[in-house]
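Support request, please re-run this one:
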Amino acid sequence: MKIRIAVLLWISVLFLSACSMFFANNMRSGSSSSLVDYLYPGGEIPPPVENVLPEIKLPARVGLAFVPSAGFSQISDAEQTQLLTLVQQSFADRDFIEAIQVIPSTYLRGKGGFTQLEQVGRLYSVDIIALVSYDQVIRTADTTASLLYWTIVGAYVIKGSTNDITTFVDTAVFDLATRRMLFRAPGINESSGKATAVGLGQASRDMSTASFEAAIAQMNGNLHMELDKFRERVRQGESARLVNRDGSPRGGAGSADGLLLLLGLLGMFFIAHSRNK
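Re-run finished. Output below.
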């Protein structure tokens, strides 16, 4: 009888050790979309920027789109359209915007680059397009404390994990006629937290949302700085020239405020995104 118990205990130890080794491996997940890979799918070097100022026509016709993900995306096509529509509706009554078009992700499949963007621009009659890209990496690893907790609880196999999440967000705004990037604003967040296996999925989702929000908050701060720089460049006759839809010249820095406000409030999209995940 004692031998049988000893054998069972030994088998249990081997089982727990094997499970521990299985779960001890770090797990990495996440999703991303690359602006560079999309715009230059063949790895080509971007052409030199010509000394020609983009003519931004006001009221603006703007397209909003996600950079397509090369693999699994945490955001479904329906969610993308819904979130971009929130941005569209928020600018519906602005007099400096003639139209804001939500570009469905189905129109930006693969690595179509500027050729695809120009086709979409003609299809939707937009002159400017704001491309949203992101990269979030979630790493899950066992902790020493989790093994003790698991050993005490036994058969429930409840274990603790440390989640490390790194989130990057980026908004890049392009003039389609010249393929010039008007400006961009990045944001980054790194966070860490603990959870048990029972609540690991929900904990990861919650942390993912919080990390997106923190990255967006940083991006918004950077966006304000970039907007100030862009406004100053426009005032000095650099970066862009503002014209009316008929091609006639438009006023100076004051007339740029409408466009700048539009571009600056694109951060609202990311906040809506993180809260609706």
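The CA atoms of residues 193 and 232 lie 42 Å apart. The longest strand covers residues 180-196.
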